[in-house]
């Protein structure tokens, strides 16, 4: 064997010896430790009764409310896009626009009559024109138009 190979072999043997030393030391320490470190020595010496947990019974009314929530419709589907590929808001449908003699505009959106300043579906009506409604959400403005017979 050459000198270089002897040095490599010596390093490997020393490394293995150190590894075995730490493994044995940790195994001995693990045997001495209690199985549940959160339990103190005093509580191990005295047998303890199970902790008193207050049993909370729900009233029939509460259970009925939870059942009603379970069976209630979701409302807006969170996985459906708020706008289609043309940028049109999908969750709102403009069904009609009307103006009073005082030229105040009213819009019929999703079976609800709204006017300027009203809120619908998280949007605020900012302007009503003869063929469209301008809606704002945060700093964005959206234009809601009538849907054609073919859905566009």
Largest sheet: 4 strands, antiparallel
What is the averaged pLDDT score? 77
Series of H and E elements: HHHEEEEEEE
**Could you estimate the helical fraction of the residues in percent?**
25-40%
What overall form do the CA principal axes indicate?
elongated
The secondary structure category is alpha+beta
- Low-pLDDT parts are none
Share in β-strands? 15-25%
Question: Can you give a write-up of this model?
Answer:
- This protein is 31% helix and 23% strand.
- With 152 residues, it is of the alpha+beta class.
- Among the domains are: 3-45; 94-145, no CATH class.
- A four-stranded antiparallel β-sheet has the order 4-5-6-7, with no helix packed on it. Strands 1-2-3 form a three-stranded antiparallel β-sheet, with no helix packed on it.
- The model has no long low-confidence stretch (mean pLDDT 77).
List the helices and strands and how they pair.
Blueprint lengths: L2 H30 L8 H5 L14 H12 L22 E6 L5 E5 L2 E4 L3 E2 L2 E6 L3 E6 L2 E6 L7
Antiparallel strand pairs: 1-2, 2-3, 4-5, 5-6, 6-7
Please tag this protein with its features:
152 residues, alpha+beta, elongated
Quickly describe the structure.
By secondary structure, the protein is an alpha+beta fold.
């Amino acid at each position: 064997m050459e000198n270089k190979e002897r040095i490599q072999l010596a390093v490997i043997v020393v490394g293995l010896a150190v590894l075995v030393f730490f493994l044995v030391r940790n195994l001995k320490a693990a045997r001495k430790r209690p199985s549940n470190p959160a339990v103190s020595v005093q509580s191990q010496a005295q047998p303890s009764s199970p902790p008193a947990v207050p049993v909370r019974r729900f009233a029939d009314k509460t259970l009925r409310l939870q059942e009603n929530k379970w069976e209630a419709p979701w409302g807006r589907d969170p996985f459906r896009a708020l706008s289609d590929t043309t940028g049109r808001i999908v969750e709102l449908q403009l069904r009609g626009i009307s103006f009073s003699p005082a030229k105040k505009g009213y819009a019929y959106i999703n079976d609800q009559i709204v006017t300027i300043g009203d809120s619908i579906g998280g949007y605020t009506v900012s302007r009503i024109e003869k063929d469209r409604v301008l809606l704002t959400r945060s700093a964005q403005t959206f234009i809601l138009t009538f849907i054609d017979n073919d859905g566009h």
